[in-house]
Specification:
Layout (H helix, E strand, L loop, with lengths): L1 H26 L6 H9 L32 H10 L3 E5 L14 E5 L2 H13 L13 H36 L4 H15 L2 H12 L23 H20 L2 H17 L2 H8 L4 H13 L1 H5 L1 H10 L3 H6 L5 H10 L3 H29 L5 H5 L1
Amino acid sequence: MGSYILRRLLLVIPTLLGVMLVNFILIQFVPGGPIDQVLAQLEGEGDVFAGISGGGSEAIGDNEFESQGARGLPPQYLDSLRVEFRFARIVCEDGFTGEPDLDEEACVAEDIPVAEQFVMMMWDYLRFDFGESYFRSIGVLELVQEKLPVSISLGLWSTLIAYAVSIPLGIRKAVRDGTTFDSVTSGIIIVAYAIPGFLFAIMLLIVFAGGRYLQWFPLRGLTSDGFEDMNFIQQIGDYFWHIALPVLASTISAFATLTLLTKNSFLDEIKKQYVMTAKAKGLPERRVLYGHVFRNAMLIVIAGFPAVFVGVFFGGSIIIETIFSLDGLGRLGFEAAVSRDYSVMFGTLYVFGLIGLGVGIISDLMYVWIDPRIDFEKREG
């Protein structure tokens, strides 16, 4: 198992490099860029797209500033933006002995080739130096940490509730396969799965958050005003009071897949010979079900828990966060993409990619822990 883990760890490097390279190349073809965003804000438009007519005028490494916002601004200001965003470097004439500065006549801004930009970025990331946001004057890691509480709340509780409900329900459906209970619950699950998460979230707001009927839950935020002044018990109650509706809205569609996966896994195991043998020996059905069938049937479901949690955690719904006014990683990624904040975009992509690849290895270890008969080294051989 040790050699398998070592091979997986070594594969992390080229895989992560490939993910970053593909996204870096794609960004080159996206209209607009951080400098266009700055120029649009200076004109009061507030949006990168407002200053662009036709195609993009500036992407990473592209230094043709033909957008309307660039007119009337001194070239030195544009050069300083290019240097600040690391699209260019300050180069001074031979013999210049002072500090490189665009204010010096002997110094100019020289374009940095796109390939060199990528190498510089990856070298910084390998040292876990993710720089600062272009527009927020805060480090990328600090910005992610600031948004983590919301994403942890949605991801953790949504995953735990989905498992807590879906596994017992799936087992019950497998035991009573073909009965009225199985048919009715399947219909309810399918309907719940078909309802878009954002539509369900709006419905919850209208019904339970003072939209038109009841006002049992708060409309926005993760905590109430004066949260710091509450005692510990009050803080816990306030936290769950705020998170109840967003978690319910983000969990509703997860029940279907997990419940049906549990049911089908149990049905497949129940029909096997060892179950019939155990029943023939006179073992109680409950002991057969939970002492023999459960471990084998739950292999796929339980071993996939890390991947499911990370998927919900880092793929937080932008719409859910927006509807409930929650400032999490989903909105952070969306805002970074709209504002062309490349440092946040690529920094978070690198961190999340690294965590995702690590979770893949943890999932494999979970398979072995749940069922020691699995040997990935022999399978590869």
